[in-house]
Amino acid sequence: MLDKTKFGWWKSAVFYQIYPKSFLDANGDGIGDIRGIIQKLGYLEKLGVDGIWLSPVCASPQVDNGYDISDYQAIWPTFGTMEDMDLLIREAKERGISIIMDLVLNHTSDQHRWFQEALKDRENPYHDYYVWRDGTPDAPPNDMQAVFGGSMWTYVPHLRQYYFHQFAVQQPDLNWENPVLRRELYDMIRFWVDKGVEGFRLDVIDQIAKDPDRKITGNGPRLHEFLEELSREAFIEEGLVTVGEAWGADVERARKYSAQDGRELSMVFQFEHICLDQKPGGEKWDWIPLPLVRLKRCVERWQQGLHGQGWNSLFMNNHDLPRIVSRWGDDGKYRVESAKMLATMLYGLEGTPYIYQGEELGMTNIRLPIEAYDDLEIKNLYAERLAKGYGEEEVMASIYARGRDNARTPMQWSAAEHAGFSQAEPWLPVNPNYREINAQAALADPGSVFFYYQSLIALRKCYPVFQDGSFTLLEPESERLFTYTRSAETEELLVVCNFTGESVPYLRPEPFANAELLLSNYEPAAGVLRPYEAQMLYRRKR
Ligand code: TEU
Ligand code: CA
Predict the structure, then answer these.
(1) Which candidate, 161, 201, 189, 240, places its Cα nearest to that of 67?
(2) pTM, to two decimals
């Protein structure tokens, strides 16, 4: 059992991300809820995870599915009550599962009381909780473009000012230069710690030190000063696990974020690896086939760059990303084999792994008619690119491959109607492949992706080399195989992954000729790796 009061307990932990809206609907309104999560704690305990990263459950008008918070200390009624949240925290803890809350500290909803006060007049005490610039209706302060499209500036006529928003118009940025605001945020965090929350995921945390006059959003000048204050004032207990979402992180910055001295965070989500299949000079919607050699070099840099100097998170899925088995595996003939191969590649690495709901079932992307999509980012992209003259087929291809709703279709629990997610029509269509791909079928099949993940999670707790072995990339130039070792003083791991749908000749390095096979997605055959074959081998050095 992990001692979660101790700094660093997360180094041998595996976390599971739940997108509450799509996890399980317990009250039959077609939307997932907290009672639904409580019903599935046994499932998560069986999988063997140590914590749940809960995407936002706080009060929100749901413009960005909860990443637009209107009250940090209230639960969105459709998700349930504060009593439900208290029960979830308690029931999870009884199963050795920590609740890690998603904190959105960069912005609020425009329906938040603070922003409604700020709109009243320039002298209102809450006005300076946000970022304002004087101006005239026809001339925003500069040409910065928001992540979800349009200008980053929105004009408020009665104030004759613009307010700044890196995301949607309904997500005004908070002004972290204001110490009174910062104190309010720290007090709010302590409210959740006092309720038994044992960690936090920090939404776009590298964007809080924005400096719009210099067109800076990520990695602003006071960022690490703010993070150190946040850690000092709010993340007081050394056992609190904190993971920052940092799209702009490189290895050097990540060393600062995750220096294992508690000054800032436990780790960050960096995105360099997951952006490698983005067309150079393009947006996220323009992609290229996975450049495997570049992926291997990227992983090598992050593994070696943080070894003994920081801590990696390990993920390839989340609520903003298409499903990895469709993206870098094969969601057709070799769906199970490739899902297991991708997991093997990830779980042999140094860092804390994060499973995104449904990843443990090998859930796949979906193709919907444009009117069925929910995500504002998809809708804005569709309108923007059609207006720019892109063909509809090309725009839909981008949405099918890269849209966030790929990850947000309801969790597939069984072959029952609506995949057992709800008794009612779900808020977003269920993937039609739920009849074959669902938890009930997986739990009845010893060869399922679920039991493969369960084995990987268990293995990581058995051998110290998973936590502290140094990383060495083998066959760096291979365009088909990703093989590496993790070496500790007395033990060594060899991870072998065939990233292609063809068989590839393969001979194990001599030291591993008689190594113990910890896990594989095939019955191994001498001298060859079958399509998407993965092997995890272990040897004692002496
Ligand atoms: O995401 C940050 C973010 O920039 C992503 O939205 C990403 O840029 C985009 O999805 C590219 O596809 C965080 C949350 O994870 C995301 O769900 C929120 O929409 C966003 O912040 C605003 O809070
Ligand atoms: Ca519900």
Answers:
(1) 201
(2) 0.98
